[in-house]
């Protein structure tokens, strides 16, 4: 059984952070496995471009210290995650997937989870998330199903995704036995709105935030997304820092409870993203970024 590499053989130290108040420690950066709408649509018909490359990219993340992997039943990538982690110690990984809005009733959510487990080739899911708030308001049934899945040992923790503050508070009020441990939201330097309410609320209540679009779907990987004087100053202090690494480092350094989940299908991108953990931005640098990318 292969172990996840930590500091022994890496050029950086992959810090593990507490995932909300679960008591679990996971890599402070994760990896996402949503490719795009077209890819997801074709995946339904068994037509996926370069699945092998995607397996390689996810595996590269795990080989380089990432323990947090995010997928969803609609992404068409759960089985790729299963293949990417073959041979690794399952207990050292934190696998997150999501139930889609068409499976929100109690029975549908239970069945959807069982199907995800089959595709993931796993006995349990670490984090089972409600992908979007229910458009038809049957949240209670979904949450009861999530609690039953925890009781049955098929799910370890319950999370939500794309919930605004009101929806999050409503959902928390409906929980009977377990907590909602995380919310997965759109959060990047270019989209800092969650810093106004969701992130402070999560921090105060011991909840983790998974940030999707942390690179703004590629916009923040280019130098021209940042003022040149900022880049010059940062590169004096951190020689070689890449634009993508500034974006990811900001999310991790400005908050204690945020786990970015950049997706990359290119293993070189995966490594570049992971290596952002090498950079510890100062408070002044974080404030400067806040001034440039205002909410
Ligand atoms: N909960 C939700 O509703 C929701 C919605 C959207 C996304 N998500 C999750 O969040 C994850 C991330 O979102 P995302 O994939 O759309 O956006 P993203 O991570 O912000 O950006 C991904 C794009 O950036 C490129 N890229 C990544 N690292 C790079 C690097 N170091 N240098 C240059 N280019 C780089 C990727 O190219 P390559 O692929 O070619 O490497 C890809 O085109 C998803 O995979 C998914 O797990 C969740």
Verbal overview:
This protein is α/β, with parallel strands linked by helices. The chain has one domain (16-292): TIM Barrel, CATH 3.20.20.100. The chain has eleven helices and ten strands. It has helices at residues 37-43, 51-63, 78-84, 106-120, 139-151, 165-174, 198-204, 228-237, 243-253, 267-274, 283-292, and strands at residues 16-18, 25-27, 31-32, 68-70, 94-99, 125-130, 155-161, 180-186, 208-212, 258-260. The longest helix has 15 residues, at 106-120. It starts with 15 loop residues before the first strand and ends with a helix. The model has no long low-confidence stretch (mean pLDDT 94). Bound molecules: NADP nicotinamide-adenine-dinucleotide phosphate (NAP).
Q: Overall 3D geometry?
A: globular
Strand content: 15-25%
Give average pLDDT, whole number. Answer: 94
Could you tell me the number of beta strands? Answer: 10
- SSE arrangement, N to C: EEEHHEHEHEHEHEHEHHEHH
User: Helix segment count?
Assistant: 11
Helical content class: 25-40%
* Unique ligands: NADP nicotinamide-adenine-dinucleotide phosphate
CATH architecture annotation name = Alpha-Beta Barrel
Keywords for this structure?
295 residues; TIM Barrel; 10 strands; globular; binds NADP nicotinamide-adenine-dinucleotide phosphate; two-stranded antiparallel sheet
């Amino acid at each position: 059984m292969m172990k996840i590499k930590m500091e022994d053989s890496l050029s950086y130290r992959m810090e593990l952070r507490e995932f909300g108040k679960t008591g679990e420690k996971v890599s402070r950066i994760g990896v996402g496995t949503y490719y795009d709408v077209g890819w997801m649509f074709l995946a339904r018909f068994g037509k996926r471009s370069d699945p092998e490359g995607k397996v390689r990219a996810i595996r590269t993340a795990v080989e380089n210290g990432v323990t947090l992997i995010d997928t969803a039943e609609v992404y068409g990538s759960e089985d790729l995650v299963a293949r990417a982690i073959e041979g690794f110690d399952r207990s050292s990984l934190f696998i997150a997937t999501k139930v889609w809005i068409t499976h929100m009733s109690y029975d549908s959510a239970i069945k959807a989870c069982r199907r995800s487990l089959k595709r993931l080739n796993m006995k349990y899911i670490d984090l089972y998330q409600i992908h979007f708030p229910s458009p038809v308001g049957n949240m209670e049934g979904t949450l009861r199903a999530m609690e039953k899945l925890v009781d049955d040992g098929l799910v370890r923790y319950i999370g939500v995704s794309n919930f605004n503050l009101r929806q999050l508070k409503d959902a928390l009020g409906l929980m009977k036995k377990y907590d909602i441990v995380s919310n997965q939201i759109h959060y990047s330097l270019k989209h800092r709105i969650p810093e106004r309410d969701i992130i402070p609320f999560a921090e105060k209540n011991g909840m983790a935030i998974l940030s999707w679009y942390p690179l703004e779907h590629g916009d923040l990987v280019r130098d021209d997304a940042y003022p040149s004087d900022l880049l010059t100053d940062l590169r004096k202090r951190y020689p070689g820092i890449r634009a993508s690494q500034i974006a990811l480092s900001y999310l991790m350094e400005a908050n204690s409870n945020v786990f970015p989940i950049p997706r990359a299908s290119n293993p070189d991108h995966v490594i570049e993203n992971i290596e952002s953990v090498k950079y510890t931005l100062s408070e002044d640098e974080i404030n400067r970024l806040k001034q440039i990318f205002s909410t």
